Automatic annotation (TrEMBL):
<protein>
    <submittedName>
        <fullName>FMN-binding negative transcriptional regulator</fullName>
    </submittedName>
</protein>
<dbReference type="InterPro" id="IPR012349">
    <property type="entry name" value="Split_barrel_FMN-bd"/>
</dbReference>
<dbReference type="InterPro" id="IPR007396">
    <property type="entry name" value="TR_PAI2-type"/>
</dbReference>
<dbReference type="Pfam" id="PF04299">
    <property type="entry name" value="FMN_bind_2"/>
</dbReference>
Length: 200
């Protein structure tokens, strides 16, 4: 989390929306083997929990149950050039959005894993514009059982949220708009839009 309080938000709905929209992140934990990270699809349950699964052979999988871990979801980001400011005494920076979620992790049972996989695929299939959504019943039961045996499901109970929405809040409205226009011209439309929608 960025130390500047201007780059924080207390808007839980905004943070949850970012997690749900991105749907992918990193899980960090300190294990007896040292610090480890895993990259994984994420499912926000809407009731305070973040669900994910790891390959059974992942370095974190054998340690996570009962541990406190950190989930990190990164949103849009972009380099900010000093040439976009009116002032000539500025330096380069980076605008970005990220949410850190700390919480206790528990391992899911088979039913929980099944439910999470169904919800995860259903959520992501809705993002595909054309064709019929894929469903798990298209996989023969024996094959599905084999594939599920290679992964482990987990649920992180969110106990602390640490967001950073660094969107040039430390600049004037005119300067923010100049930066947003520069970002748009360079193809970074998502972060430019967030600068307008979140900061105003």
């Amino acid at each position: 989390m960025h130390p500047n309080a201007q780059f924080r938000t207390e808007n839980r709905a905004l943070m949850e929306a970012l997690v749900a929209e991105i749907g992918f992140g990193m899980i960090f934990a300190t294990t007896p083997d040292g610090p480890r990270v895993a990259h994984t699809p994420l499912l926000w349950t809407g009731d305070g929990a973040l669900q994910f699964h790891l390959a059974r052979g992942n370095a974190l999988a054998r340690h996570l149950d009962g541990m406190t871990a950190l989930a990190v979801v990164n949103g849009p980001e972009a380099y900010v050039s000093p040439r976009w400011y009116e002032s000539t005494v500025e330096v380069p920076t980076w605008n970005y959005v990220t949410v850190e979620i700390e919480g206790r992790v528990r391992r899911m049972d088979d039913d929980g894993l099944q439910g999470m996989l169904e919800a995860l695929s259903a959520h992501n299939e809705t993002r595909i514009a054309s064709g019929t959504p894929w469903t798990m019943d298209k996989v023969p039961p024996a094959r599905l059982s084999q594939l599920k045996g290679a992964i482990v499901g987990f649920e992180l109970e969110a106990q602390a949220w640490r967001p950073t929405f660094k969107l040039s809040q430390n600049k004037s409205a005119d300067e923010r708009e100049r930066v947003a226009l520069g970002l748009e011209q360079e193809g970074s439309r998502a972060i430019a839009q967030l600068m307008r929608d979140v900061v105003g």
